[in-house]
Specification:
The protein is α/β, with parallel strands linked by helices. The chain has a single domain, classed as Vaccinia Virus protein VP39 (Rossmann fold). Helices cover 30% and strands 24% of the residues. The chain contains seven helices and seven strands; from the N terminus they run H-H-H-E-H-E-H-E-E-H-E-H-E-E. A seven-stranded mixed sheet has the order 3-2-1-4-5-7-6, sandwiched between helices. A hairpin with a 6-residue loop joins strand 6 and strand 7. The protein starts with 22 loop residues before the first helix and ends with a strand.
Length: 205
């Protein structure tokens, strides 16, 4: 599949052979208004049960598609950390923060093997998990970043979906659950009703 058909937006921890350097180009795809119909971001955010004042990390934030919704959910006293490994994505999110006046959003540069998170209540990873190379080690870093009662939410593409990365790159929910459980998290698939994707939630024990 040509790269421009690779219909995901996030890549905070992808292998280095797969780059997303030019945010101004990727925004045409990642922030395409047609995305709302299949990504259904409001359903995803609702499933996260975010309370005002919480801190939420969006790992693999890309061009910041989810940030305005997460910023609204956490409220003025909350915090959204938008993490990506591409410096140009971090630049773009910082500029978007000014445009959209989402002052509770902070863009942060992560590493391919480390999200570099402080203590947070929720972690969202959309269309990114299949890019992470050593996922069990990465899951341990996510678990270590969670506050008591904190949760991780992984959203990725169903095997049968016409959207998304090449089929051979897709990871079934059961495997993601096992990888998160290896980090001591209580993981399960949750039915959010997305047409092309599944959601796995993982709670700190």
């Amino acid at each position: 599949m040509p790269e421009h058909d690779h219909d995901h937006h996030d890549h905070a921890a992808h292998s280095m052979h797969h780059r997303f350097e030019h945010a101004d180009e990727w925004t045409k795809q990642f922030d395409d208004p047609a995305r709302d119909a299949w990504q259904q971001p409001d359903k995803v955010v609702a499933a996260m049960a975010i309370a005002p004042g919480m801190s939420v990390a969006d790992v693999g934030a890309g061009t910041g598609y989810f940030e305005s919704r997460l910023a609204k959910a956490v409220g003025e006293n909350g915090k959204v950390l938008a993490v990506d490994i591409e410096p140009d994505m971090v630049r773009y999110i910082n500029e978007r923060r000014v445009r959209e006046k989402t002052w509770n959003v902070e863009a942060r540069l992560g590493a391919a093997d480390d999200p570099k998170l402080d203590a947070v209540d929720r972690i969202l990873i959309v269309d990114t998990w299949h890019h992470i190379e050593n996922r069990e080690a990465y899951a341990k870093k996510l678990a270590a970043a969670l506050k008591p009662g904190g949760m991780v939410f992984v959203v990725d593409f169903k095997q049968e979906s016409e959207k998304g990365p090449p089929k051979h790159m897709r990871i079934p929910p059961a495997q993601i659950i096992a990888e998160l459980q290896s980090a001591g998290l209580d993981a399960k698939e949750v039915d959010v009703g997305l047409p092309d994707q599944f959601v796995v939630s993982a709670a700190a024990k």
